[in-house]
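User: I'm new to structure prediction. If I give you an amino acid sequence, what do you actually give back? Let's try with this one:
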Amino acid sequence: MEELGKIIVIGSGNWGTTLAMIFSQKNIVYLWTINSQEAAEINKTRESQFLPNIKLPKNIIVEEKYSRSIKKNDIVITAIPSRFIEELTDEFKTHGIEECVIVNASKGVEHTTLKTVWETVMAKLPKVQFANLAGPTIAREIAEGLPSKAILAARDIAILFQLQQKLENDLLKFEFSRDIKGVELASSLKGLIAIAVGIADGLGFKTNIYGIIMTYGVDEFVTIMKFLGVYHKTAYSIAGIGDLITTCISENSRNRRFGKLLGQGYSTEEALQEVGMVVEGVSMAKTINKLAKFNLSIPLISCVTKIIFEDVKDVRKELLDTLNSISN
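Assistant: Good question. You get back a string of structure tokens that encode the predicted 3D arrangement of the chain. For your 328 residues, that looks like this:
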């Protein structure tokens, strides 16, 4: 494969902007926004509304999406809510984009079909080279210059080494995996457990309960991954348990913050409005509801989905009864 080309980040939310900042250490990065007005505002202030008080480096060029062409060897990093991925693939086809390197940084599974982002993209754009980026990567921490490590997953080993050479720097190092679907599922499921820890926090519980929730959560990851025919040991990688722990303990986690509000008595709608950004764990909860008919033994995750979507009168009792009913 020829040398990799320019880097385009699609999605100017907190994660997309953070990735643009990381990768601009060694490269010019084009950060694509939904319209020219948003691009002009960010270029004027050199600051994202999602990352206040953090100035964007000069190496980031903010512009409306499709302001420039995407070539075969260009890297396109997708950092948009996973529910918009299929729409994005349709846009690519409309613009005649059939080949490029897509690095997916979105988390989630299409809840009506259970398709991962990888499966959705490849069904529409079979000629692209696909990689997935996941791991313990809270955007605000990295944007503030704190280091982390992520997993790059791809079927093609050669593209992993090329991406590492192009993207890796002092702030973000990479491990490799060929288990794209397992990495995607693990990073998507973790949001549900972070919501559970948030609920516990909102109820006034402390670290004893957090540890129990995280332990049972990983077990339920494995149950779901085995059922879906995915390599379940990926649940124990930094894309699984590493991302899970980070998201559960971070005060900057949207999933945890959303759960905390539920524990404090907010309705689902009120909590989502208060968080003010997409909470991917809620989308994943819809997916899990699709699996309920298969009678999988996932009591903790089922408890979380019940609290999110049903009018549970006594959240404290619901959570404690569930935790006390589990025995490994």
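You can read the tokens as a compact description of the fold. Here is one thing that stands out. Residues 7-178 form a domain with the Rossmann fold fold (CATH 3.40.50.720).
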